[in-house]
Design goal:
219 residues; single chain
């Protein structure tokens, strides 16, 4: 991970700042109108070449119940893991730039990549794979690729929306930072696709998938 710093203050707190940046993709950003690039202030800090550790989602009991009622079995794709009710996706890259809150909207920009992993939903002979998640901090959305029985159904579609109002304070231990508490919800596009594929109308926009926990290396 390489950290670009723009002030002496950032130099002294670079490790914590790098971790704090990742809280904001999972939090509600400012709702002010976007400013033009000409009027943007200098960023406080930027994290580039982001990789290592993971984004995990503890599946909500209501989501699991909904899957059970539809006879859908959750699973993992690629490098993802599923254990103890949580699905985890390795962070493979990305970048985040952080501006002073209120100075520009959105005040966090960039992306967090999770290439080569994903979540599968299977019913009978039909399997839907949601993979290659990209967290967009400017819109509080998660995009990804969708395939049905191995055939591409959508690329770069908005799969989840994020609600960061329940985000807990940053926790740090050694060279690791943990951010937990953001709600992950099914998007309108994902709900429509899943309903069409599995011939149901039970999957609703805003369905709570679970609570996110992001773990990163600060050095």
């Amino acid at each position: 991970m390489r950290i670009d710093r723009t002030s002496s203050t950032v130099r002294r707190i670079a490790g914590v700042t790098a971790a704090a940046l990742l809280a904001l993709p999972l939090a509600a950003c400012s709702s002010d109108d976007d400013q033009s690039s000409d009027s943007k202030p200098e960023p406080v800090a930027a994290v580039t070449d982001l990789s290592g550790q993971s984004t995990a989602v503890t599946l909500d009991p209501g989501f699991v119940k909904a899957l059970t009622s539809l006879k859908l079995a959750p699973g993992v794709v690629g490098d993802a893991t599923l254990a103890n009710g949580a699905v985890s996706f390795p962070i493979t890259g990305g970048d985040v730039t952080y501006y002073k809150p209120g100075s520009v909207s959105p005040y966090v920009t960039g992306k967090i990549d999770h290439d080569g992993s994903g979540l599968s939903l299977t019913a009978g002979s039909t399997e839907v794979d949601l993979t290659n998640f990209v967290v967009d901090p400017g819109t509080s959305r998660v995009a990804g690729d969708v395939s049905v029985n191995g055939k591409s159904a959508a690329e770069g579609a908005t799969i989840f929306n994020l609600d960061g109002r329940t985000l807990k304070p940053l926790q740090t231990e050694g060279d690791t930072a943990v951010l937990e508490g953001t709600k992950v919800q099914i998007s309108a596009d994902a709900a429509a696709l899943l309903n069409k594929t599995f011939k149901t109308d039970a999957v609703k926009q805003g369905l709570l998938v679970g609570i996110a926990k992001i773990t990163i290396n600060t050095k």
